[in-house]
Structure prediction request, 94 residues.
Amino acid sequence: MKISLKFWVAIFSLLFAGWGTSVVQGETSSDRPFYEYKGNYDEEATTLKKKFFKKFGYKLVDLERRWALEEIKVLQLITQLLQDFMLYTTYYLF
Prediction:
């Protein structure tokens, strides 16, 4: 019974990929410290989303994962800059 070259390549690549990820990570999950957020993360995110809705009129919806605080802050900054740019361009174009 002859085993094809494709089969051996697939087996070795799977073995190497599994070994490589453990080497790259270099530590087990128990070695990593647990990060605990000081304060109420959900309450702060809800507050930022409400402020965003009041300011711009868009509701930020949680889909597969929740919004991070930094994401909301960056989105608020970008939306403000976009509004300013649109106001500036419409003022000088018309």
Notes: The mean pLDDT is 79. DSSP finds three helices and no strands in the chain. Residues 69-93 form the longest helix (25 residues). The helical segments are 5-25, 41-56, 69-93.
